[in-house]
Amino acid sequence: MTNQTIEALGRLRLEGMIDPLEQQSRSSEFLTLGFDERLSHLVTAEISYRDERRMERLLRAAKLRSGASIESLDFRASRGLDRSQVLSLASANWVRNHDQVAVFGPTGVGKTYVACALGHAAIRQGHSALYLRYPRMLEELGIARGDSETGTSHECLVQGGGVDT
Questions:
Q1: How many other CB atoms sit within 10 Å of the CB of residue 88?
Q2: DSSP labels, 93-158
Q3: Which of 15, 33, 58, 137 could hold 37 in an S-S bridge, CB 3.0 to 4.6 Å?
Q4: What pLDDT, in 10s, does the model give residues 105-120?
Q5: Residues 6 or more apart from 45 whose CB is under 8 A from it?
Q6: Can you give the pTM of this predicted structure?
């Protein structure tokens, strides 16, 4: 394999194929595979690479609190979380149905953690999310409605259906 091929893959933005192609050229196990099987392996690697990059990009943009996940939620009775309801919300059907979820409760019960865990679950299913504390959300909503001149999120909120204008 030549550096020219590797450079061409990079120029075509097929970075996810570069390492597997180098692996194929070094490994004797791939020599027994036909062209279609080797190409299929490369295409699958590229898809995985892009899916991982997309997930990383969505997680960064969401600004979620780190470590929050549905799997790490504490469902002990003293916490007052309804396991079936939380798991139902984690399926992200509410996102697909264009519904909203509000998390309420007294200080210190883990509202932020639950909200971030739900956001993380939605991102793993290919949706985007954004964590905003309530005062910031009100500020963004005011910007989207035209009540403020300092914001940059107007288009995002209006297009996302987050504001009735």
A1: 12
A2: HHHHTT-------STTS-HHHHHHHHHHHHHHTT-------HHHHHHHHHHHHTS-SS-S-HHHHH
A3: 33
A4: 888 888 889 999 999 9
A5: 16, 17, 19, 20
A6: 0.70
CA-nearest of 44, 51, 37, 36 to 19 is 44
Closest CA to 124 of 83, 68, 73: 68
| Residue appearing with tokens 């409605």 | 145
pLDDT at residue 13 is higher than 60 = yes
Tokens for 18?
């570069």
Contacts made by residues 4-10, CB under 8 angstroms, sequence distance 24+: none
In whole angstroms, give the CA distance from residue 109 to residue 103.
11
Taking alpha carbons only, the member of 124, 67, 119 closest to residue 94 is 119
